[in-house]
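Annotated sample (chain length 165).
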Amino acid sequence: MTEHWDHEERKHWLDEQRNHELHRIANALEKIAHCVCKPAIAVSSRLTFRKGENMAQANVNDAPGSYLYQEFDAAGNLVPPTGVVAYASDNPAVATIDAASGQLVYIAAGVANISASDGGNLPASDALTLSPAAGGAVSSTMTFTPGGGAVVSPQGAVKAKAPAK
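Output written by the structure step:
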């Protein structure tokens, strides 16, 4: 037995098939739009010392490093900060940091806590330890010999003084 559809039945069946496909496409587009348009929500942050070392330790006379603030979603994916990132040092006598770039300036030996956040969201901090200049003298002694004497020049060089006759 051959099934015979009239024109109206065939049109109705095609309309149903088309509507079903359009509905599937609309659902797929909605899922894509949800993934693309929905911003990832940061749940954690990290402040990383950028100078090639694993730890935030340096000598005062080293070329200064910098810090990088990053945020991550629940899956551990890097996400853009939700606001402007601002860096700060709690001890500018040891190190200062550019509030916008995270670039450090070393001042003196000691510890400075460096912090960053994007408008208060997920703050992060790290302790930066600066050691005294490597191999640099921390004190010196000058000995004067009777009759020979010594003179210290304004540049700090020591010159022997000929004995008086």
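Annotation: The longest helix spans residues 7-37.
Annotation: The chain is about 20% helix and 35% strand.
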